[in-house]
Amino acid sequence: MAEGSVTPGSVKYKRVIIKLSGEVLRNERDGEPIDAEILESMCAEIAEIYELGVEIGLVIGGGNIFRGIQGLRGASVQRATGDYMGMMATVINSLALMDTLEKMGVVVRVMSAIPIDRVSEPFILRRAVRHLEKGRLVIFAAGTGNPYFSTDTAAALRGSEVNANLIIKATKVDGVYDKDPMKHTDARKYNEISYYDVIRQRLSVMDTTAFSLCMDNKIPIIVLSLREKGNMRKAIEGQMIGTVVHG
Predict the structure, then answer these.
(1) Cross-strand partners of 193
(2) Range of the domain at 66
(3) How many structural domains compose the chain?
(4) pLDDT score of 101
(5) pTM here?
(6) 74 pLDDT band (50/70/90 cuts)?
(7) CATH number of the domain bearing residue 93
(8) E strands along the chain, which residues?
(9) H/E stretch holding 212
């Protein structure tokens, strides 16, 4: 059996990119950017999926630490600089995930789009695919390595590059709505929706570039709540959960 490989379980999707919201890691009571209990709970769910034999790539945002241009309101820092600061925040979160997952017995590799060879490997596509094939969970850090692109786009790009069967967008909300459910009590949730309709209606659960990439490469997206335990496993097993975005 290959390094890091596990006995495959009953799953619908074999190779999955999981996009995690960095903001979910924040302790909302005291403002700490990484809450240890939330981090461990999140990693325990990922480790459970790993044990099913799923090949997993992770992309995590940095919004709990810094949100790129949105973190620069009133500041004189240029947009590109702010975006690079956001990329560095994703590296911090990626290392936290790596350390916690390794303590749970998961074999992990962090690959950064920005070379930081003391703490991560550089992103090289063939090497990333090989890691996945050998049963290693890969964390893709630092977004795409370029300013003006979100970590949602990074997840869609990496998913396209490694031929993922599914992208899971795990966030604070439990699916895609016709308007912001945090602001509108009459917001309607979609069980499924097409890429075209998401883009046409400008639904902001992911950015347009990410949806367009997934549409072009025919990768379904499941948007679900990370706050409800077991949701990611249900999605990978093929159960109806959250919102499915497809062609």
Answers:
(1) 245
(2) 15-246
(3) 1
(4) 98
(5) 0.91
(6) low
(7) 3.40.1160.10
(8) 15-20, 55-60, 108-112, 121-122, 137-141, 166-171, 176-177, 189-190, 192-194, 221-225, 243-246
(9) helix 208-217
